[in-house]
């Protein structure tokens, strides 16, 4: 069954066919709706539904709680249950760098801990990838598959691209990275991608929260902030299971010594009984709220697994955070049983 969607305060309308998302129908009709991920993780396509009802046949995605907190639907995932009236999803213009597909070679491999490897990728000749701090690239695999990984290097340090890759059980690509890949291996990628980047012109103090390899894009943002001379207060919370999982702990420890406006709080969810841990324990978002119970007038950046993002979203908004000042990157880990899903790490 098809439904009619009308854009509020206009005469524009279009038809959404059975099992078609609102965004797909709008793009099919040539309407310039904003979008990015098309998987329900970035929130770019969110728009208010004035009249009617929608459903999410593919299930709830990581960007949906923040959209719903604003009274909006994710048009890339939503399908109509009735005729609809929606607001045109206008958003402030986002800076944009045209993604490119480029070859690269593995320049260096480092083991950071038992299940995280750092790959440095070298683009050919004098080619350099222009990027915003916090964006990601897609590694292009056979059969049209992709694996997405956040860039841990800042824009000014792009001679080599830095990825932090966590081994995923039964993960085809991550198993290849840990078991087979060698220096000078040829790969191909597309990027830069994503709207998760540092908003430099905001006056608000910054809170950052990373889980596991969610530290990677935050590292790029922080190194860019230090390089650019951003003086706003910045507090990083990095959550991990054990002390050994804080695979670059010495780096933010050093930053805290070097930059007066920067604080660092590591949080362990499962500290080993035989290891003396003087720091915070429990959920990383709870540790942040213990220190900042009122999040009004903060910019919050979150990066990590969906469970962490989803646990924090509603609580942060309930503690006064303006959803328009909440930016996040939710990592979906894919194993061989999910060969076509994007991942981020």
TrEMBL record:
EC number: 1.17.1.-
CDD domains to which the protein is assigned, alphabetical: fer2 (cd00207), flavin_oxioreductase (cd06189)
An MF annotation (GO) of this entry: oxidoreductase activity
Any one Pfam family match given in the protein's UniProt record, by short name: NAD_binding_1
InterPro entries: 2Fe-2S_ferredoxin-like_sf (IPR036010), 2Fe-2S_ferredoxin-type (IPR001041), 2Fe2S_fd_BS (IPR006058), Beta-grasp_dom_sf (IPR012675), Cbr1-like_FAD-bd_dom (IPR008333), FAD-bd_FR_type (IPR017927), FNR_nucleotide-bd (IPR039261), MRET (IPR050415)
Domain FAD-binding FR-type: 99-199
Keywords: Oxidoreductase
Superkingdom field: Bacteria
Protein's UniProt keywords contain Methyltransferase: no
Record has Repeat as a keyword: no
SUPFAM superfamilies linked to this entry: 2Fe-2S ferredoxin-like, Ferredoxin reductase-like, C-terminal NADP-linked domain, Riboflavin synthase domain-like
PANTHER family given in the database record: NADH OXIDOREDUCTASE HCR, PROTEIN RFBI
Record-given protein name: CDP-6-deoxy-delta-3,4-glucoseen reductase
């Amino acid at each position: 069954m098809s439904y009619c969607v009308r854009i509020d305060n206009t005469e524009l309308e279009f038809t959404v066919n059975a099992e078609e998302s609102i965004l797909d129908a709008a793009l099919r009709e040539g309407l310039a709706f904003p979008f990015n991920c098309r998987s329900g993780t970035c929130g770019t396509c969110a728009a208010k539904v004035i009249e009617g009802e929608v459903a999410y046949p593919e299930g709830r995605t990581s960007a949906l709680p923040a959209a719903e907190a604003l009274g909006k639907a994710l048009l890339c995932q939503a399908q109509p249950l009735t005729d609809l009236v929606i607001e045109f999803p206008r958003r402030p213009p986002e800076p944009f760098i045209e993604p490119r597909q480029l070859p690269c070679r593995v320049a260096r491999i480092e083991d950071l801990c038992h299940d995280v490897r750092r790959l440095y990728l070298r683009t050919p000749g004098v080619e350099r990838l222009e990027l915003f701090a916090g964006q990601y690239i897609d590694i292009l695999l056979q059969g049209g598959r992709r694996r997405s990984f956040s860039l841990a290097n800042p824009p000014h340090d792009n001679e080599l691209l830095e990825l932090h890759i966590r081994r995923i059980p039964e993960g085809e690509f991550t198993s290849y990275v840990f078991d087979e890949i060698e220096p000078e291996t040829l790969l191909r990628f597309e990027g830069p991608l994503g709207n998760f980047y540092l908003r430099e012109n905001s006056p608000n103090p910054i809170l950052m929260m990373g889980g596991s390899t969610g530290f990677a894009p935050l590292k790029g943002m922080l190194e860019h902030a230090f390089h650019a001379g951003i003086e706003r207060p910045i507090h990083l919370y990095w959550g991990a299971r054990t002390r050994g999982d804080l695979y670059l702990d010495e780096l933010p420890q050093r930053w805290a010594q070097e930059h007066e406006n920067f604080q660092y709080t590591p949080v362990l969810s499962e500290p080993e009984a035989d290891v003396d841990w003087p720091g915070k324990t429990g959920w990383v978002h709870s540790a942040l709220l213990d220190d900042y119970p009122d999040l009004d007038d903060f910019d919050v950046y979150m990066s990590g697994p969906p469970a962490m993002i989803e646990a924090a979203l509603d609580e942060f908004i309930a503690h006064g955070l303006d959803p328009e000042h909440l930016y996040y990157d939710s990592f979906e880990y894919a194993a061989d049983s999910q060969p076509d899903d994007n991942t981020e790490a």
